[in-house]
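It is worth pausing here to work through a concrete case rather than discussing structure prediction in the abstract. The textbook approach is simple: state the sequence, then state the predicted structure, then interpret. We follow exactly that order.
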Amino acid sequence: MANLRNFINAIANDNRIYTAEDIGGMTSKEFLANEKAIDYQLNNLGIPRESDLAGNLDVVYVHGYTRDDGTEVRAHYRSKPDGVVGNNYQMDGVATGGASNVDNFNIENSGLNNVDSNNMKSADFSQLETTNPFAKINAEKNANRPDARELMNIALSGFENLPEHPEFNVFQPEAAEYVNDQLNIQNSKGLSIPKDWHGVIYDKNSGFSKRLSNSPELQTQIMSKYDKKSKKFTTNQIGIGFSEDKNLNYSIGHGTILKPQIENGEFRGILFDKYDYKWLSKEELPNAETRKLNNSAYTLQNTPLLTNYYVIIPVRFRLGK
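Step two, the predicted structure:
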């Protein structure tokens, strides 16, 4: 079997890998529609069995889902691009063991009241907060703001000494182009990801995802862009900001909801944000202590002491009747 990583089918122009079981389960019509792509894979990669791919770190498994137009997409494997770390990353709110397509929204909505329904634990940054003076200050100032504290710790770690992180996975800088394309933000002003940036992709059951999804402030801003007559959102990029919730204000501040949709009374989307700082004046940020922290971080990000990166967090909530 040839190298499974970075495989692109030149006929289908995607990274799907057909298994022997996939082909055996096709109807005659489906096989004819995919025959050229299958032949290309056969000649360039081979046709593996599902048992050959299970647990392979060079592929990701995509669960079956239904597209907006009602088309059923069967579960299948895809080749993993360079730069993706781990075999359980998620970019679309789908805990798929590695779903690579951000268009697949198949979220098991847990409702608004299940903030503590998961057993996941945040990353342990105790060593960093003991040895790094800026992390010590961060731990003190953001003691009651868990997400603000964690995001700053990730930036201070430089991605070189990250502790175990069960609630999120990391994308290496090599994956930036891939993520830009998948999120359709490659040409979006202010959103497009620089080539040298890491990314942090939170799990849909993470505490961060729960706290965002349960924010009335976020829900109100999202639904203000929903047209009840057409039953569609007026934009695919919803800018949101936080001022009431200090934890979300200090961690996200302002972000963008991408791929918004409503299905069966549930909102589903992802929050995208860049972890970077802008120098703020007294007029822009009147609170002196907050302004000092922000501008200190701005200074740090121009040194090797603080690393900029992007964040992707699943958001989902039930709509009121």
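Step three, interpretation. The first strand starts at residue 16 and ends at 17. The CA atoms of residues 229 and 306 lie 46 Å apart.
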